[in-house]
Amino acid sequence: MKKIAFITGVTGQDGSYLAELLLSKKYIVHGLLRRTSFLNLDRIQEIIDRYESKGLLKLHYIDLTDTSSITNLIIKYKPHEFYNLASMSHVGISYFTGEATLNINAIATYRILESILKNHKKCKFYQASSSEMFGSTPPPQNEKSPFNPQSPYGISKVAAYYTTRYFRQAHGLFASNGILFNHESPRRGLNFVTRKITHSLARILSGYEKKIYLGDISTRRDWGHSKDYVRGIWMILQHKRPEDFVLSTGKNYSIEDFVKKTFKILGLNWKKFVSTNNKNFLRPSEVRNLQGNSNKARKLLKWKPIYNLDTLCLDMLKSDLKLYGMTLEQAKEKAKKISK
Ligand code: NAP
Ligand code: G4F
User: What is the chain's alpha carbon radius of gyration, rounded to the nearest angstrom?
Assistant: First the structure.
């Protein structure tokens, strides 16, 4: 019998890669998405075209503030695995939308777990926890490091993390947290810093923009590739016991390093094209330094990332250049002209 998986946040970066991975492993995937005024299926259009008519991918509208919209689907389809990836995932925006962020990220996790407990206790549950929970705790951070969240987003993720542990410890659910450090890809949202840099650089070369306006570029992150991390997410639910795991590369770089690497691919001097410390992108409190220790996942799950920061930057830049009709070689030629 085919396994059935539910994915909230299927239209997002990780949700789309995870859906592809599970379909390649012969799962039947149910993607749970919210209603938007303009359909937002770009990241999953390819798998919709390939799998929906065969009944292998089904999409359902839900609302994370509406328990019955989720409960009805759990009762009807009895999923083997439930991946809770939906969230208001932008840290900077969470300072302006704190209440909604807590509702979607934290209380919805409680709603889903309570529904699983009442209606389908055998279902395994994955919670998308975040390195942002460590906040000001100095690196390296692992599963035992204390949480010191610095934003409404961080607070919401800590609440969801403990909710997941509570349903595991008090009620015996197979419920696990993946504590994932930053991971990026060509499908990353445009207002996260890495994609903003690669996408804006492609626009500069195409003549649509002159400069990239950033905030604090001295903060440090441990960046991996989403494709590597969704493989780890799946492995966490295949482990024999429900447990919490950090996924990270173990290396960290500043935002400035990311800018330098990306511009270097095209031989451009970044200082001519980047403006920093713009107040629109500064946060009331910063997470300055994230660097994960993922030894537990590497040992118990045999997980390890394939991409490093150089291959990640190249993948993202090439993809954004392609969006603007350029190959890497053509972009290098244009770069020579604009740097004169
Ligand atoms: P993402 O690209 O921003 O995707 C978020 C998904 O959540 C989208 O499908 C979005 O739907 C959905 N969503 C947001 N608000 C919703 C709501 N009110 N109701 C229903 N769906 C809603 O994020 P991601 O990078 O794939 O991250 C996946 C998860 O991992 C998130 O929970 C994030 O917080 C967590 N995480 C991410 C990272 C990272 O570095 N990427 C690291 C640690 C943890 P729309 O498409 O309609 O907006
Ligand atoms: O790309 P960011 O917005 O990612 P952030 O805040 O680290 O959050 C991401 O990673 C978390 C895991 O640790 C996830 F849980 C979360 O969902 C999300 O995926 O910002 C990275 C850094 C920050 O220090 C920010 O202040 O870049 C700095 N930054 C500087 N200029 C900027 C900008 N960030 C953004 N988004 N835009 C700027 O112009």
Answer: 20
Separation in Å, CA 10 to CA 6, 111, 336: 9, 18, 40
d(CA 7, CA 84): 6
Long-range residue pairs from 66-72, CB within 8 A, at least 24 positions apart, any chain:
67/111, 67/114, 67/115, 70/32, 70/111, 70/112, 70/115, 71/115, 71/118, 71/119
Any residues with Cβ below 6 Å from ligand 1, and which?
9, 11-15, 34, 36, 40, 64, 85-89, 104, 128, 130, 180, 182-183, 189
Catalytic residue list contains 143:
no
Q: What is the dihedral of CA 81, 85, 86, 91, to 10 degrees?
A: 160
Separation of 48 CA from ligand 2 center, angstroms? 30
The angle formed by the CA atoms of residues 199, 204 and 205, to the nearest 5 degrees, is 100
Is ligand 2 within 6 A of the CB of residue 135? no
Long-range Cβ pairs for the range 48-54 (8 Å, 24+): 51/23
Active site residue 162: no
Domains and CATH numbers, the chain: 4-184+224-247 (3.40.50.720), 193-221+252-288+309-338 (3.90.25.10)
Alpha carbon distance 162, 59 (integer Å): 29
Nearest CA among 112, 141, 115 for reference residue 127: 112
Among 14, 45, 192, which is best to mutate for testing ligand 1, by the most ligand atoms less than 8 A from CB?
Answer: 14
Strands 220-221 and 253-254: antiparallel
Query: How far, in Å, CA of 233 to CA of 14, rounded?
Result: 10
Q: What is the pTM of this model?
A: 0.98
> Do the Cβ atoms of 60 and 30 come closer than 8 Å?
yes
Nearest Cα residue to 64 out of 105, 108, 94: 108
- Residue 132: active-site member: yes
CB 30 within 8 A of CB 74: no
Report pLDDT digits (tens) over 151-172.
Answer: 999 999 999 999 999 999 999 9
* Residue range 67-109, pLDDT digits in tens: 999 999 999 999 999 999 999 999 999 999 999 999 999 999 9
